[in-house]
Amino acid sequence: MNAQQEAIFRKALVSNNPQAILDVGRAFNGLGEAERGYILIERAALFGGMYGFGLDYTAVQKKLNDLGAKPPLAVDGAWGPKSKAALIAYQKSKGLTADGVPGPITLSALGISGANEIASSTMGSVMPSANNADAKAYAIGKKAGAQAGMTEKEIQYVVAVAKGEGGYGNGWGNPSKKTIEESKGFGITGYEGVGSNNWGAVQGTGSAGKFPHVDHDAKGKAYLGYYKKYATPEEGFLNMAKTILGGGPKRKAVGAAEIKTAIAKGNLKEAVYAQHANGYFELAPDRYLAAVTSNYNKIMNGIGWPKLLAENGITPTVAAVAGGGGLLLLGLGALGVYLFRKPLGLVHA
């Protein structure tokens, strides 16, 4: 950490603006300063309310003990250095961000959930449990994408698109009244896709078979289609990724190259318009872009993934703050004046 970064860190430590402290902590996490980020997140938690972690730490400690924490932890709900060290060791073993924060991605990996939890994500942001579906989907994407050789930008793009294409497969459990009524005419309930791990309404037969669901032809007439069912959510993610990044039915390999090039540039607009040209969707591209951009930002704000994509591409300044430590072209101090001091209220708090 250089002197400019240290100065901003010190300002955050003495600030009385908990949201500002959280945002700065998140930025430091993105810059690879996980220890500084964790300290700021802990300080913000002291303000309580929505800024507290809101977790039953005994459940985390017990789970870590069950997994062989050494030395065994006292299951007392006090999140001290030993608990943090044990969690960091676990996070490292699973390829997660090793920050010692029991956020939703880490909790999902541990198999811990709660209806009313408010937790700090492993990237440093505070989020309600309503965003746990995003955190879980991102964790699935990270695991499966890494095995398939996907880049972080490609993983983020697929997750952002999948959120709007049926909510990572969760949409099968929320059919419309019209779908339920039409399903009765085919002798089904409309809920057959629940648990199918099908992220993108892809027809065919998957590793675990297929399931029936009502679809509509070009004239709007209902018919019974059969959709892929997968044994694991990772398979569902990879099939969605193949569909999104594969170039579409019109231009195939050429289209796939265009989409991947746009994503590599961090440009959501170019990626979406390439998908449209390749026949991936029929909706007006500006409307589809608005939905993808909105979903991307909602996920980022909810679980705190590093900002690598934007509607018109990532500038060096944005990349520097969002996690491109090697792109600190302006210096964190200069960015701090513009991004941290005025909007975040660190100076006048």
Can you describe this structure?
This protein has helices at 3-14, 18-30, 34-45, 57-66, 81-94, 104-110, 132-147, 152-164, 177-184, 233-245, 248-264, 268-277, 285-303, 316-322, 332-344; strands spanning 118-120, 126-128, 210-216, 222-228. With 349 residues, the chain is mainly alpha-helical. It has 15 helices and 4 strands. The chain folds into 2 domains: 3-125 and 316-344, no CATH class; 150-303. The strands form 2 sheets. Strands 1-2 form a two-stranded antiparallel ribbon. The protein starts with a helix and ends in a 5-residue tail after the last helix.
Descriptive tags:
349 residues, two-stranded antiparallel ribbon, 4 strands
Could you give a quick summary of the protein structure above?
With 349 residues, the protein is mainly α. The protein has 15 helices and four strands.
Biggest sheet, spatial arrangement of strands: 1-2
Query: By helix and strand content, what is the structural category?
Result: mainly alpha
Tell me, rounded to a whole number, the average pLDDT. 76
Strand content: 5-15%
Whole-Å distance between the termini? 24 Å
Count of distinct structural domains = 2
Low-confidence stretches: 48-54, 114-130, 316-349
What is the strand tally? 4
Helix count equals 15
The residue fraction in helices comes out at 40-55%
Strand and helix map with partners:
Blueprint: H1 3-14, H2 18-30, H3 34-45, H4 57-66, H5 81-94, H6 104-110, E1 118-120, E2 126-128, H7 132-147, H8 152-164, H9 177-184, E3 210-216, E4 222-228, H10 233-245, H11 248-264, H12 268-277, H13 285-303, H14 316-322, H15 332-344
Antiparallel strand pairs: 1-2, 3-4
Helix pairs in contact: 1-2, 1-15, 2-3, 6-7, 7-8, 7-10, 8-10, 8-13, 11-12, 12-13
